[in-house]
Amino acid sequence: MGRRLKKTSAASIWLRTTPADLVATMQAIIDIDYPPHLAVVSGGVDTGDAVELLYHMQVFYGIPNAEVNITIIVPVPKKNLVIPTISHLIPGAVYTEREKQEMLGVTVAGIPDPRGGLFLPADFPEGGLPVEKG
Questions:
Q1: Dihedrals φ, ψ of 64, to 5°?
Q2: Which residues contact 98 (CB under 8 A, 6 or more apart)?
Q3: 3-state class of 45 per DSSP?
Q4: For the chain, which end, N or C, has fewer CB atoms within 10 Å of the first or last residue's CB respectively?
Q5: Which residues are paired to 42 by β-bridges?
Q6: Which one-letter DSSP state was computed for residue 78?
Q7: 21-25, 34-38, 123-127 — which one is most confidently predicted on average?
């Protein structure tokens, strides 16, 4: 017989903030547990007037029965697709931020490495986006 797996549960917290408050929100999470584990920034959820980005992270990462999943929803208005970088707080965030710039056309203000070409080939049409803004 194979090993039995034991199911464990983890708490999940969903927050909503604005681009202007994103850095302060991240700092508050860092103050709980440094460093939090940033998994990815997903999204590109089109809500009509905005594009929602979802910051998926965990605090107390790897501590059995203590890990908490946190998702921060940030609606970025289409009329001003700009969000501040969090890479000065979580250095690894720069890669997922570059992806959002390249794939969604979101400008990440203050990003230390804004280069394109992370996922798209060099011959991708200039000014084109894989996900078009509406």
A1: -55, 135
A2: 108, 111, 113, 114, 115, 116, 118
A3: strand
A4: N
A5: 54
A6: G
A7: 21-25
Taking alpha carbons only, the member of 56, 98, 53 closest to residue 77 is 53
Lowest mean pLDDT among 3-7, 14-18, 72-76: 3-7
Structural domains of the chain sorted by starting position, each given as residue range(s) with its CATH number in brackets = 11-109 (3.30.460.80)
Token digits of residue 38: 């940033």
> Which residue's entry shows tokens 């917290």?
13
Among the listed residues 9, 128, 121, 125, the one whose alpha carbon sits nearest the alpha carbon of residue 65 = 9
Please provide the distance, in angstroms rounded to a whole number, between the alpha carbons at the two ends of the chain: 55
H or E segment to which residue 34 belongs: none
Quote the CA–CA distance of 12 and 111 in Å, as a whole number: 28
pLDDT, mean of residues 129-134 = 54
Instruction: Record the tokens describing residue 17, joined without a space.
Output: 């903030």
CA angle 17/113/77 to nearest 5° reads 30
pLDDT score at 84? 98
The Cα–Cα gap between 17 and 23 comes to 10
Please give the mean pLDDT across all residues of the chain.
89
Give me the pLDDT at residue 33, please: 87
